Amino acid sequence: MKNLYSVLVGPRLTEKANLLQEEDGKIVFKVRPEANKIEIKTAVEQMFNVKVKNVTTANMHGKQKRVGKTIGFTKDWKKAYVTLSEGKINFADEL
Fold first, then answer.
1. How many domains would you assign to the chain?
2. Which residues, other chains included, contact 90 with Cβ-Cβ below 8 Å and sequence gap of 6+?
3. Tens-digit pLDDT profile for residues 13-33
4. In the predicted model, is pLDDT for residue 95 greater than 60?
5. Cβ contacts of residue 92 below 8 Å, gap of 6+?
6. Is 91 part of any domain?
C-alpha cells in the first residue's frame, strides 16, 4: 500500500474491544484486506504517535443475510489486534 491513511478503515468500538483495551492494552481496528502487519504497524505508529509492540490479524468472513426472499452475504473483512508498548489511544476524546 502506498498511502498509510488507506490501511486503517476505522476502530472497532465493541464491548469485547473495550475489554481488550482496558485489560491487555490491545486496540482493535478494521483494516483493508490486502494490508499486512508491517503496514498496519507503521500506519498506527504514524497516525496516533504511539509505539506498537505486536500486531495480530484475523480474516473475518461475511455473514449470510436475508431480506425478504433474497439471500446474500456481507463482505469479507480483516481485523487487526494492535498491542501497544508505549502510549495510549482514547477514541472517546476524539469523538
1. 1
2. none
3. 999 999 999 898 899 999 999
4. no
5. none
6. no
SS3 75: coil
Asked if the structure places residue 94 within a domain, the reply is: no
pLDDT, mean of residues 80-89:
90
Nearest CA-CA partner of 31 in 59, 3, 54, 52: 59
Identify the CATH number of the domain in which residue 43 sits: 3.30.70.330
CA torsion 4-92-78-40 (nearest 10°) is: 30
Assess if residue 80 is contained within a domain: yes
DSSP string covering 1-13, please? Answer: ---GGGTEEEE--
Q: How confident is the model at residue 52 (pLDDT cuts 50, 70, 90)?
A: very high
Residues 6+ apart with CB under 8 A from 89: 27, 48, 50
